[in-house]
Specification:
Number of domains: 1
Distance between the termini: 75 Å
Helix content: 25-40%
Radius of gyration: 23 Å
Strand order of the largest sheet: 7-8-9-12-14-15-13
Number of strands: 15
Largest sheet: 7 strands, mixed
Strand content: 25-35%
């Protein structure tokens, strides 16, 4: 069984696929254009690997963020976070916008008459590999009778960089969440279910509960399910949420204290009593 599970968006177990033509076209069905993952030594040649199998159980692991764009499901799953959206407004998806704390992959925007009424940021994160998947790609195509494209040692292997991927992701979220929290908007991290499980297991996530609309940061975890004709499809499996302080806790950092808020809360709590209860006539 090939270690490449999906190549150019097509399951490698699919029947009646012209792999020679697929490798020549290099089209990503999720971006609807040429795959953007290219070899540094051969920038005109894309890699095309969306999903690979890892371990003795051959678990399917998504390694390309664009794979999560299937059916644009990640965007429709964020519609409820556009609290100012109204019927008649247009919905837009805008990519790569810089904000304090870094760049955000996508924005789901509600607009009317060319004016933005509301928005939510969406980050796509999949697992990084240790080593390269190029040899596995080459072996698969060779098995399918596709003439080999030059470059790369086909004997090399790869692994999953779980720890670095998870930690880097959380550190970046720590900075970006504060921006969205200040704006009163939402930021969504879309990940595969296995990466979400790893973060919950290896970092402090006990305080991160089921999704609440009031939280600025939302985790959307997707499962990869086998479907018709061996094809795979993503499906929203779970939702969780927290705030910037919660992300700091995940990383074991000291959350920044909001002194003004804490002083006001303390003053209010010192004065509330049965005498201050609002009683309607």
């Amino acid at each position: 069984m090939s270690k490449v599970v999906e190549l150019y968006g097509i399951a490698t177990t699919s029947s009646r696929v012209d792999w020679t033509q697929t490798a020549r076209r290099q089209q990503c069905p999720f971006l609807r254009r040429k795959c953007t993952k290219t070899r540094k030594s051969q920038p005109s040649l894309s890699i095309g690997t969306c999903t690979v199998s890892v371990g003795s159980e051959d678990r399917a692991i998504v390694i390309c963020p664009q794979r999560l764009l299937e059916r644009r499901q990640v965007f429709t799953d964020c519609l409820h976070l556009l609290q100012l959206h109204e019927p008649g407004n247009e919905l837009h998806v805008v990519s790569e916008i810089s904000v304090p704390g870094g760049s955000v992959d996508y924005f789901l925007v509600s607009a009317r008459g060319g004016r933005v009424r509301d928005f939510a940021g969406i980050e796509l994160q999949t697992l990084d590999t240790t080593g390269t998947v190029w040899p596995a790609r080459q072996r698969f195509l060779s098995e399918k009778g596709v003439r080999s494209q030059r470059g790369g040692n086909v004997s090399k292997s790869y692994g999953m960089n779980w720890k670095m991927t998870a930690k880097t992701t959380l550190v970046q979220l720590h900075h970006k969440t504060a921006t969205f929290e200040h704006l009163g908007k939402h930021l969504v991290l879309a990940v595969q279910e296995c990466l979400m499980d790893y973060m919950r297991r290896e970092f402090r996530f006990d305080h991160v509960g089921q999704a609440r609309l009031g939280d600025p940061l939302h985790f959307h975890a997707y499962a990869l399910r086998p479907g018709h004709n061996s094809a795979y499809s993503i499906e929203l499996a779970s939702r969780h949420s927290t705030d910037s302080g919660g992300i700091a806790t995940c990383l074991g950092l000291q959350a920044d204290a909001n002194v003004e808020l804490s002083e006001i809360v303390a003053a209010l709590e010192a004065k509330i009593s049965s005498e201050t209860l609002l009683q309607l006539p």
